[in-house]
């Protein structure tokens, strides 16, 4: 994957001129993360949003009992950040960590705002992403309140088919809100019935 694939991701949603692409490309910062590297940690001010080019990242919080609550997985072509901290520029509640070797492009909040002025279509692109994210988080909240663990696992498998075998089961369990042991039983049953 390359910086060009990041631009291609954006061009799936909006039309950009060559000059606009060149301007956007000047703002990207390409970085590589090794498995378990943090992009940022809870309590920091999140200065960047990341578009995953390869690998996978996760955002999560840890409660007072030390339990991890995974908010999001971000495989290739997904954006990830602590939206609250990124927009408000106040310390965040989430950590973002690579769960496998990953390559991402970073876009700072400062550069994003500059690009909104110089490339108005980009504001539309991020509005679409934000709306889709809001809908997905709302649906996930409703699912967590109303669906059984088996149904939540089935939804995970539909949303992230490429991750089912690529990430540790304990992370999937934390995402759907069950213990790893319970997930193991459900997974066996799910695979038998698939």
From TrEMBL:
Transmembrane segments: none annotated. Residues 32-116 form the Cyclic nucleotide-binding domain. InterPro entries: cNMP-bd_dom (IPR000595), cNMP-bd_dom_sf (IPR018490), RmlC-like_jellyroll (IPR014710). This is Crp/Fnr family transcriptional regulator. It comes from Aquirufa rosea.
